Amino acid sequence: MQPLANVTPLKPAARAGAIEVKNVGQVFKTRSQDVVALQDVSLEIKPGRFVVLVGPSGCGKSTLLMMMAGLRQQTAGTITINGAPILQPDPDRVGVVFQEASLFPWLTAEDNVEFPLALRGVPKAERRAKAQDALKLVGLDGFGRRHPHELSGGMKQRVSIARGLVQDPPVLLMDEPFAALDEQTRMTMGDELLRIWAATGKTVVFVTHSLTEAVYLADEVIVMSARPGRIVDHLQVQLPRPRTYEMLSGDAFGSLRDRIWRHIRKSA
Amino acid sequence: MSAWISAKALRYLIVIGLIALWELLPRTGLIPELFLPSLSSTLIAGWTDAGEYGHALAVTLYEVVVSMAFACGGGILLGAIVGSLPRPRILIMPMMSSLYAVPLVILYPVFTVWLGIGSESKIAFASIYGFLPTMLATAAGIQTIDPQLLLAARSMGATLSQRLVRVIIPAAIPTVLSGLRVGGALVIVGVVVSEMLISSAGIGYLISRYRTILDSAHVFAGVLLVLFLAIGFNAVIRWIERKATIWQTGTRAGLANDDIAAGAMQPAT
Question: Which residues of chain A does B157 touch, with a Cβ-Cβ cutoff of 8 Å?
Fold first, then answer.
């Protein structure tokens, strides 16, 4: 199944975004011992796919994501995006969305979205235009002047997504972005994210604790084991798109979720 | 909302009531004028010797401004270093925290030996006095910056200096300002107290001199001046805080800062 076959990417650059993780390992050195957080992780993500990483706490899924973002160096192996290794944060190739608290509270929503452009000295007018486009894309047209404390949790995450997309990177990495939201907002944000993803054709790598969220959003779910983190399963989610709420109670959905849960129970 | 308005009105009423009592109690003879001269005789005393008070105020203001520059400049600088680098923190912080509990005023006689009884010894004492809370607040402000914000900035390609200018400094401003409020108030205390102890000029000196000749009206005129100085300073800081931290309105952090300023960080005097 090719869920993206009928979605035309916005521009050629959006076709980029292949991620290759090869024999990656991560060892934390502490005073008493070396802790192996990740061991021999290899995976290949094709452009435009929506991939979800799940696993028990401490399995290193966030660590793996941080390494893809260039925010942390692996101790073994290589990670390449668009065919070139990631050695440091590269906002041209990778946008990152964190948990709730990562908006700058002293900046308005639009200034937050413009922040990565301001870092690179993009002229004010161009910055503002791009920020407006990004805010419109995430459904926050007209909220640009508000400060984060004037926005709801879901709106804040929309601003974060807009900030991650404003430089139009081919890859969007999301570290438990909806974990702090209530259940209803979380469902709505999931649908919103799928809409944005379909509209932009980005490669999305999404870390979550929620198995339902994982199956609901993903083309592929990668299941990791507890420390030392390893990939124990790589599922293809063959549910049709657009995903609907009714699918949650279907047999196909349930059996996928059960399969993931069995892995996690075994290793936790 | 209505409770808030009545609280504000009540505050004004209390102030007006106290002023009225200040005038009435000594006039009716309930309190001897030696203990509390009436407001009007205090103002008259101040007015007739306005030149003397003006000169004293100039000396005190000069000492306060210079001390504040030292206390705040040094406090913010060292606080920033201590807050952002773990090594100096381990070295300096325990020392500073215990120093905070020492009544520093015991050092003042030493300063007069070193620097004489002129403005220099007051400035030295008041600077050190106001320096500690500013430094501790700045260090705390920088240490408590949400690491997620720095991580996010890094993910967007921010260099070290961009992170300092665009993330660390704006994030630390509210805590630093609340430290300035406490530090600045202590600078005023330090200057006036040292003037009262060993000195030859300034409002503190006037208060202390008039006290020895039991001229209560002139003593209270000096007290009133110090009061206005402190209130004026507080108003300025509050104005800056409101301008600089609009984004914090109604947040827990904003409330916490008020707690700090309201006395949680008062040292021994």
Answer: 89-91, 116, 119-120
> Minimal CA–CA distance to B238: which of B267, B262, B263, B266?
B262
A106: left (phi over 0), alpha (psi -120 to 50) or beta: alpha
Instruction: For B154, name the nearest residue in chain A, comparing CA atoms only.
Output: A89
What does the block give as tokens for B129?
């006095």
End-to-end CA distance of chain B: 38
Distance CA B254, CA B245 (A): 8
Over the stretch A84-127, which tens digit does the pLDDT of each residue have? Answer: 889 899 888 999 999 866 899 999 999 999 999 999 999 999 99
Indicate yes or no: CB of B156 within 8 angstroms of CB of A99. no
Q: Give pLDDT tens digits for B207-228.
A: 999 899 888 888 999 999 999 9
- Kindly state the average pLDDT of the residues A8-14: 44
Long-range CB pairs of A80-83, under 8 A, 24+ apart, other chains included: A80/A19, A80/A20, A80/A22, A81/A17, A81/A18, A81/A19, A81/A20, A81/A170, A81/A171, A82/A16, A82/A17, A82/A18, A82/A170, A83/A18
Distance between CA B186 and CA A246 in Å, rounded? 65
Answer for the pair A67, A96: CB distance below 8 angstroms, yes or no.
Answer: no
Quick one: what percent of chain B has pLDDT higher than 90? 26
Q: What number is the average pLDDT over the span B246-259?
A: 48
Instruction: Say yes or no for a CB contact (<8 Å) between B170 and A148.
Output: no
Q: Helix-strand-coil percent breakdown of chain B, rounded to 5?
A: 85, 0, 15
Look at residue B107 in the predicted model and tell me its pLDDT: 84
Chain B residues with CB-CB distance to A115 below 8 A? 153, 156, 166
Say if residue B161's pLDDT is above 80: yes
Is residue A168 within 8 angstroms of chain B, CB to CB? no
A177 in contact with B at a CB cutoff of 8 Å?
A: no
- Percent of chain B with pLDDT strictly greater than 70: 89
Contact between A89 and B149 using a beta-carbon 8 Å cutoff? no
Whether A250 and chain B come into contact, CB under 8 Å, resolves to no
Query: Residue A208 is encoded by which pair of tokens?
Result: 């979550």
SS3 call for B261: helix
Suggest the residue from A86, A100, A104 to mutate for an interface test with chain B (most B CBs closer than 10 A). Answer: A104
Which chain A residue's Cα is nearest to B169? A106
Of A71, A94, A101, Cβ closest to residue B146: A101
**How many angstroms separate the CA atoms of B204 and B192, rounded?**
5
Angstrom CA distances, A38 to A75, A87, A206, B101, stand at 9, 18, 18, 48
Helix/strand/coil for B156: coil
Phi, psi of A213 (to 5 degrees): -60, -40
- Quick check: A115 and B157 CB within 8 A? no
Q: pTM for the whole thing?
A: 0.76
Residue A148 identity:
P
ipTM above 0.90, yes or no: no
CB within 8 Å: A101 and B148? yes
